Amino acid sequence: MAVPNQEFLWGIFQSVDRDRSGYINTEELQQALSNGTWKPFNPETVRLMIGMFDRQNRGQIGFEDFGALWKYVTDWQNCFRSFDRDNSGNIDKQELNIALNTFGYKLSDGLVETLVRKFDRNGDGTILFDDFIQACITLHTLTAAFRQYDTDQDGFITIHYDQFLNMVLSLKM
Ligand SMILES: [Ca+2]
Ligand SMILES: [Ca+2]
User: Fold this and answer.
1) Beta-carbon neighbours within 5 Å of ion ligand 2
2) Residue 164: CB partners within 8 Å, gap ≥ 6?
3) Cα of 107 to ligand 1 centre, how many Å?
4) Quick one: which ligand is closest to 60's CA?
């Protein structure tokens, strides 16, 4: 999907920028994304998304970066809907397994279960939209870090304690 026209985006930007500061901060984005759901949108996911699109390192999003952020959220919504096969509004273990396979991950059943447990904030064995985004970004970040060392791509790495700590501590998550 293409980035929509500027006038349309400006309208959305202004409604999200509640204090009219010209920037969207984490609370404003969280409120905008929470519309229509019972729980506040996962603050970790909001933080991750601001961090990804905040090119000026202000800790908030100006209009120049808003189009990319808006497209990102919309793409995730479409992705989530397409993997929520039974239209339950959440992703269960089977649906997550299919999604991750489609993304190119080869994970064991046990690991998929662990992921559901970790990102299941409701405690009902399923993952909601915001937690799904967090799960996917986390998996992507960890996999990218692992691959830096797995140069022959055989799924094994041998690293020194120092390298391990360095890898974990430099993760942006
Ligand atoms: Ca603002
Ligand atoms: Ca579902």
Assistant:
1) 84, 86, 88
2) none
3) 40
4) 1
